[in-house]
């Protein structure tokens, strides 16, 4: 995670220099970080190969099911695959941290970061799902819509065709309605119409479609940086090359990636005073993943700022009326196009993820602490404690969103900052909290200027948020010894951004024996 270097100076020279000085003081001619990119590519290739036995594997695997390599899916073979997978993850993180040090030292620019991200993502395009099984739910819900079963009223278990698609949906989501926007269900329906019962093809095609969102984000990010005052290499390193993007959103894959594309381009349009387009794009993002709706009220303030007149209230009214018209028209048209009717069942379906209960969601964790303390004295059920804390958190979230929205009333680039904080507040306070939800606001925050210690914190959080789930997609949050290791690994990764080999482990390994 933090110690070797590319041959720009030679490993020994850089190790010696970084023992004496901060890496930000290093100023050298730019060299292409071939070894760092290669390290991450080897790591992602290991992730892809190991996922065949340790990732989100199929119930009936047509490739490995009964072949000579089927042993990798069971017993000691699966343990070996899991170890190999975590080794690959470590190499990806190590390469990402090294690349971050080069970016901070201004030894590399934007192009190497983009090349690195592309190389690290490429093997994962054909990988089994990593750290999640959500993509199987996407295909199951698309199959429902394709075969005339309302995904907002029924679970995939009720589908009587495409057995491979249905049986691979996680048991938690077999009988629950879809929590996604109708436009994404139309996308999933189109994918299943092409891939049918072939789950491997379904996962790969889903990834390729979601890459549209990645392309939109990559197109918007340089322009967002120019408006928001950040540095492009750092923004690309944080938002595009990070494990959250490479492993969660692409390796997952998750439909958040497609929503983020529309959100990023929509915010850029607002900054460039194309406000009608901005509202339209973010509304489309909402029809993919409803969370994008959080950004819409902030776009109204940005529109109001660019209207003439001294009265904030009058400018707000002039901005909110066309915004509502655009939103309402696209909302109705998108829902009708996707569902064949004005089906609002997806709003109620958004409650389905609240079935997930774990302490990664802040109020749930607080409720579980109170339950544990109370249960030491008297036996009580845990659900009332969690439910009460979740209600309190919903009220707190409402207050936070209103406060941030009001702070954004003067428009401008600061509004984007408050918007990003609002998008980060939602997964923190509203159940459920899933690791990849934090990318909603993080992509926008990446375009601002960063301090080094905050970048180090971002590294630690990114590593932590990938590792809190097992590669199979099951949560690891209550495996306390495992979580202790995750916490240590995250701290070490964070410290490694600021100083290579912070504990001197590699230096001790290289030290010649007497």
Overview of the molecule:
It is a multi-pass membrane protein. Residues 17-26 have a biased composition (Basic and acidic residues). Residues 1-26 are annotated as: Disordered. Pfam families: MptA_B_family (PF26314). With 514 residues, the protein is mostly helical. It has a domain at 361-433. 64% of the residues lie in helices and 0% in strands. It has 22 helices and no strands. Helix 3 packs antiparallel against helix 9, helix 5 (134-146) packs across helix 7 (182-195) and helix 12 (275-288) crosses helix 14. The chain is globular, with a radius of gyration of 24 Å. The chain starts with 10 loop residues before the first helix and ends with a helix.
Query: Span between N and C termini?
Result: 28 Å
* Percent in strands: under 5%
- Per DSSP E runs of 2 or more residues, the count of β-strands stands at 0
Order of H and E elements: HHHHHHHHHHHHHHHHHHHHHH
**CA radius of gyration:** 24 Å
């Amino acid at each position: 995670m933090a110690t070797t270097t590319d041959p720009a100076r030679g490993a020994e020279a850089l190790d010696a220099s970084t023992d004496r000085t901060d890496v930000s003081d290093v100023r050298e001619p730019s060299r292409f970080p071939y070894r760092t990119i290669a390290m991450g590519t080897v790591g992602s290739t290991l992730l892809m190969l190991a996922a065949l036995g340790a990732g989100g594997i199929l119930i009936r695997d047509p490739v490995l099911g009964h072949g000579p390599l089927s042993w990798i899916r069971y017993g000691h073979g699966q343990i070996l695959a899991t170890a190999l997978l975590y080794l690959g993850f470590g190499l990806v993180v190590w390469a990402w941290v090294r690349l971050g040090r080069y970016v901070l030292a201004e030894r590399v620019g934007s192009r190497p970061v983009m090349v690195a991200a592309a190389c690290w993502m490429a093997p994962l395009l054909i990988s089994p799902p990593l750290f999640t099984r959500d993509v199987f739910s996407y295909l199951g819900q698309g199959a429902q819509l394709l075969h005339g079963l309302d995904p907002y009223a029924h679970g995939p278990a009720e589908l009587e065709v495409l057995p491979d698609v249905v049986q691979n949906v996680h048991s938690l989501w077999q009988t629950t309605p879809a929590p996604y926007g109708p436009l994404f269900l139309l996308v999933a329906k189109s994918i299943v119409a092409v891939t049918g019962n072939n789950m491997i093809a379904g996962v790969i095609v889903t990834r390729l479609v979601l890459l549209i969102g990645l392309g939109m984000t990559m197109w918007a990010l340089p322009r967002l940086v120019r408006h928001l005052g950040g540095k492009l290499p750092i923004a690309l390193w944080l938002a595009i090359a990070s494990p959250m993007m490479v492993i969660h959103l692409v390796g997952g894959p998750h439909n958040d990636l497609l929503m983020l594309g529309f959100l990023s381009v929509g915010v850029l349009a607002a900054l460039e005073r194309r406000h009608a387009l901005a509202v339209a794009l973010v509304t489309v993002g909402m029809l993919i993943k409803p969370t994008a709706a959080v950004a819409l009220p902030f776009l109204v303030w940005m529109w109001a700022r660019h209207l003439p007149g001294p009265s904030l209230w009058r400018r707000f009214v002039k901005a909110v009326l066309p915004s509502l018209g655009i939103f309402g028209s696209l909302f109705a048209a998108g829902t009708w196009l996707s569902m064949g009717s004005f089906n609002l069942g997806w709003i109620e379906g958004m409650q389905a993820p609240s079935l997930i209960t774990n302490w990664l969601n802040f109020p749930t964790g607080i409720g579980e602490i109170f339950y544990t303390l109370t249960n030491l004295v008297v036996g009580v059920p845990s659900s009332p404690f969690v439910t009460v804390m979740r209600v309190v958190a919903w009220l707190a979230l409402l207050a936070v969103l209103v406060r941030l929205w009001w702070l954004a009333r003067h428009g401008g680039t600061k509004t984007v900052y408050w918007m990003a904080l609002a998008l980060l507040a939602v997964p923190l306070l509203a159940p459920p909290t899933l690791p990849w939800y934090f990318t909603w606001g993080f992509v926008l925050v990446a375009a601002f200027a960063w301090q080094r210690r905050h970048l180090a914190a971002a590294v630690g959080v990114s590593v932590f948020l990938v590792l809190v789930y097992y590669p199979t997609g099951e949560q690891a949050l209550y495996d306390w010894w495992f979580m202790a290791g995750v916490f240590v690994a995250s701290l070490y990764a964070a410290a490694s951004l600021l100083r290579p080999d912070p504990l001197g482990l590699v230096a001790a390994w290289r030290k010649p024996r007497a």
